[in-house]
Amino acid sequence: MRKKAAKKRPLLPDPRFNDQLVTRFVNMMMWDGKKSVAFKVFYDAIDIVGEKKTDEEKTALELWKDALSNVMPHVEVRSRRVGGATFQIPMQIRPDRKVSTAMKWLITYSRKRNEKSMAQRLASEILAAAKEEGAAVKKRVDTHKMAEANKAFSHFRF
Predict the structure, then answer these.
(1) CATH code for 38-49+62-80+88-156?
(2) Which pLDDT tens digit goes with each residue over 17-26?
(3) DSSP state of 107
(4) What are the DSSP calls for 48-97, one per residue?
(5) Is the pTM of the predicted complex or chain greater than 0.70?
(6) How far is it, in rounded angstroms, from Cα 108 to Cα 114?
(7) What Pfam families would the database entry show (predicted)?
């Protein structure tokens, strides 16, 4: 790396909840620079979560944050070549990478669902993840299992 690392640009908080995490999520969900469409999808999904939720003391946004924390991985495996062989080495994940990985998984598995609109798909995946169910949570569990299975190679960490 010749040049210094790029500075993190500050994100503007979203208009409805005044939260930077929401803006980050919407930016990840956005396709072809259509930010207003992505915001509409997210807000519609949050409204659907608000209608369907069973837990009365939590707001829909808190439910979304719970879902995000349930999807967040704590360890991941990284490939490392040692003496001609490639090993899967379990490593801790940086906090910002944890969040972005959780968001990616939530969005990816929402898109693969079978509901009519993206807002309904996202709402269903959020509700499932909040209850520690759903494909995104399964992905986190599989990642943790993979790291556990390869714990023997952790001494190759760099």
Answers:
(1) 1.10.455.10
(2) 999 999 999 9
(3) H
(4) HHHHH---SSS-HHHHHHHHHHHH--SEEEEEEEETTEEEEEEEE--HHH
(5) yes
(6) 13
(7) Ribosomal_S7
